[in-house]
């Protein structure tokens, strides 16, 4: 893309450029109101050569915008806290809310290029990363985001000239980084690497735009043109339903809920003995997992009163409290609702070596949101693939990903509901909503069967926990976690 | 406190200890339900000597708790992102939500001790820090928190023995830190420093509890005793209204709103010329502020339609977009409401060298929350002092703190409301709520007068921006920011 791109200077008379900028600037400001009205989030990534004018361009773009509804983020090399999470985590953290602009000054292109040039990534890992970027771009687009990716191009001669000028004054000298100088010295290597990333992430969904940055005014005009056009288009496109993708993830063959036996028995004595042994083993494994920096993500879903809470407690009480977090997931808060639905789970991902346990999870999308109409049909139908992609990213990052459906039959639920209503200390656990959900048992069962069938992958398998007998269920879950950890540690 | 504390081992027969632990453990678990019911947030700080068993104690305390409603945080040395914020910022980030436990493994005592021992803090700075800790403790308590501070005490002999044992096995050796060894070598120095901090922060509001950690079971029993008692007490105390403090902050003498002239004129021509000059100066100053790592916090308050948005825009458009953020503040979201009301502002504090501009602010407490009854009378009356303390902390940290009341008269507001209703692009800016607020003008004016009179300090002054003429107001605000920056840079 860079190779076929010719940098030219000043094809248009400066006055004409100035007048056009003013016109486009006005249009852009009016669009800010429009994106608020349409609740469009706009994510603008500005990449390019050192001294190509990324900061200046962003400064000019926002000049007339209402500062309450945009943010500018200067991405620097990842900090330790960021390096301990998936590559895209820190970018996902920064995605705009509905109706808001976020401008990133450098981003995943620059970070990946540096990783390549310093031999921190290559081969399969590089392919995985490029794929993750493509997936993020598409997922954001499908979830109503406008993502605009700009690359500011200047010739080596121009870059040298600009850097030289910056270095001449002590007020600007500090702005010249080592990386800038490397780019001049190793221009060809950089070009090859940039080229590679640009091409690999130049998709129909979210294409790259190479901007001739030889002249700053013309570059601004070009960027304004692109942005205003794309915002118009995005508002129009909001009516078009994104395609529902069915990617070929190797799915595990899973039983339907109705085929799952629920007649296992375990008495309190046996339970206590086995629990003690398993918790000891888990404790030791947690220590090793921590030291090997393996992240663990466990999602609990299940029927109301199936015993998720008690099950989680038996698992977590064997863990070192400094190394895990349990997240109860309720309906999203406003700032969560205003972002990609996976954002709030991304946000809660553990550091490597840590364990995150979700009490309800991102699967809400294909259960309660589907059945209660909190999202559109296209949304939840798309979600199977989006979730598989999300979990693949976790697994590529190195995480152990486990998902539990805590299962009981309808009679057992009724008995437990009644028990809760009778027992004063348990009454808070039962609400009218539980009874209402119970009436929709069949619809839920169908949704759960579909969910389990379509999202049980080798890297992130579902396990149906047989919880008519809670003792049995707890032993079953803890055993699965132990097996998964041991298997990973053996690899 | 440590000097008079005698460490004794095993005064009680082990079986008796075990039985009592079991009893207290049960009580503690039942209390977890109680703190949820009463929406009590419980913040437990566990400090003490290396190898005294802090981690083990926390592990035992949480053993039976529901993991969805507690968090354990292991505090390590502050990261760069944390060091660039006020000392207490990272602790405030971690305070529990209503109905939740947070256990801190080490905290502000340990961090301060290390800073003292490594000569990073002393004299006035140390006094300031100890005062900040006392203020945080009290503010949390007054805002409905239970803060429990434990210090685990062991003798030097016992510590040496435990460290030696840990170092004997390669599985535990890594847990012995350099700091632990330093504590053994420089025991007396450590004792002096701990003593100093313990005494300075041992207040009636939030006292320290020294726990004899010679025997782990007895230490656990002691901690359980303390916690269960304090939770009971805190639930009881919730009915007692905290004292309303009036500290002697040197207040600036401020005019009432009704005495503020609003007849200044400025025409568009003059405005444009002056704005251009001032924005240039501000731009240069921002660069210097950034390089000197001075944080800037600006709060905008004002009448509806006074022109806050436009004023902020003229200020921010002169700033380097990578160095500031504008935060529009609406009513708090659930996770914000569930914490100390200053938490969401703490959370948004800038890094040093950065500028945070708040469009509406923590002053909502003494305006809208007061007048609409969103908080109790005791709450808003206490808030003047709490806010002065908060702003003093910012100023002690080194921040420039400025507060603008963007002022217009009632007729001007009416004219602007009507204008908004007539102009299609502006209609979104006017709602029924604006009209309702307008009806309460006199009540608001009284509250604003009181607020300005009681919170205009030298370190964080209020400025009444005369905004009947918006041009004049914008020039006035930007000039104040410039003056404050220049003054600081000259110091």
Distance between the termini of chain A: 41 Å
CATH topology of the largest domain in chain A: Rossmann fold
Outline type of chain A: elongated
Helix content of chain A: 40-55%
Strand tally of chain A, please?
10
CATH superfamily (homologous) name of the largest domain in chain A = P-loop containing nucleotide triphosphate hydrolases
**How confident is the prediction overall: mean pLDDT of chain A?**
95
Strands across the major sheet of chain A, in which order?
2-3-1-4-5
The greatest interface between two protein chains, and residues involved on each side, is: A-B, 47 and 47 residues
Percent of residues in β-strands of chain A: 5-15%
Could you please describe the fold and organization of this structure?
2 copies of one chain form a homodimer. The first copy, chain A, has 491 residues and is an alpha/beta fold. In chain A, strands 2-3-1-4-5 form a 5-stranded parallel β-sheet, sandwiched between helices. Helices cover 52% and strands 12% of the residues of chain A. Chain A folds into 2 domains: 14-237, P-loop containing nucleotide triphosphate hydrolases (Rossmann fold, 3-Layer(aba) Sandwich), CATH 3.40.50.300; 257-490, Rossmann fold. In chain A, α5 (108-117) packs across α10 (187-200).
Provide keyphrases for this structure.
491 residues; alpha/beta; Rossmann fold; 2 domains; 5-stranded parallel beta sheet; 10 strands; elongated
């Amino acid at each position: 893309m860079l190779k076929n791109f010719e940098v030219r200077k000043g094809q248009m008379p400066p006055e004409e450029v100035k007048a056009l900028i003013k016109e486009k600037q006005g249009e852009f400001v009016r669009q800010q109101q429009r994106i608020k009205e349409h609740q469009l989030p706009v994510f603008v990534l500005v990449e390019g050569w050192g001294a190509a004018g990324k900061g200046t361009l962003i400064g000019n773009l926002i000049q007339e915008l209402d500062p309450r509804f945009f943010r500018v983020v200067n991405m620097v090399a990842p900090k330790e806290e960021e390096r301990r999470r998936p590559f895209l985590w820190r970018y996902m953290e920064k995605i705009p809310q509905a109706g808001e602009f976020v401008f990133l000054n450098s981003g995943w292109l620059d970070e990946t290029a540096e990783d390549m040039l310093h031999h921190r990534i290559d081969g399969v890992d590089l392919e995985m990363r490029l794929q993750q970027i493509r997936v993020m771009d598409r997922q954001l687009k499908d979830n109503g985001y406008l993502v605009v990716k700009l690359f500011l191009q200047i010739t080596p001669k121009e870059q040298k000239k600009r850097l030289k000028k910056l270095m001449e004054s002590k007020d600007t000298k500090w702005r010249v980084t080592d990386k800038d100088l490397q780019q001049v010295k190793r221009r060809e290597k950089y070009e090859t690497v940039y080229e590679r990333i640009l091409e690999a992430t130049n998709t129909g969904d979210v294409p790259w735009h190479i901007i001739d940055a030889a002249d700053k005014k013309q570059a601004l005009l070009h960027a304004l043109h692109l942005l205003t056009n794309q915002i118009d288009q995005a508002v129009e496109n909001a009516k078009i339903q994104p395609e529902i993708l069915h990617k070929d993830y190797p799915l595990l063959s899973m039983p339907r809920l109705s085929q799952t036996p629920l007649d296992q028995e375990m008495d309190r004595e046996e339970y206590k003995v086995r629990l003690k042994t398993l918790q000891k083993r888990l404790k030791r494994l947690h220590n090793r997992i921590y030291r090997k920096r393996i992240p663990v993500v466990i999602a609990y879903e299940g029927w109301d009163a199936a015993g998720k809470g008690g099950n989680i407690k038996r698992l977590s009480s064997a863990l070192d409290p400094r190394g895990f977090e349990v997240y109860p997931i309720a309906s999203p808060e406003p700032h969560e609702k205003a972002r990609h639905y996976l954002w709030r789970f991304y946000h809660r991902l553990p550091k490597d070596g840590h364990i995150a346990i979700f009490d309800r999870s991102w699967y809400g999308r294909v259960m309660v949101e589907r059945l209660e109409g909190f999202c559109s049909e296209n949304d939840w139908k798309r979600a199977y693939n989006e979730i598989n992609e999300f979990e693949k990213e976790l697994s590529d990052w190195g995480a152990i990903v486990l998902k539990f459906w805590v299962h009981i039959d309808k009679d057992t639920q009724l008995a437990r509901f009644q028990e809760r209503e009778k027992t004063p200390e348990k009454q808070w656990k039962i609400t009218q909503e539980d009874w209402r959900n119970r009436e929709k048992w069949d619809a839920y069962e169908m949704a759960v069967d579909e969910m389990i069938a379509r999202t049980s992958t080798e890297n992130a398998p579902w396990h149906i926990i047989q919880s008519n007998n809670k003792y049995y269920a707890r032993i079953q879950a803890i055993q699965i976690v132990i097996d998964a950890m041991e298997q990973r540690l053996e690899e």
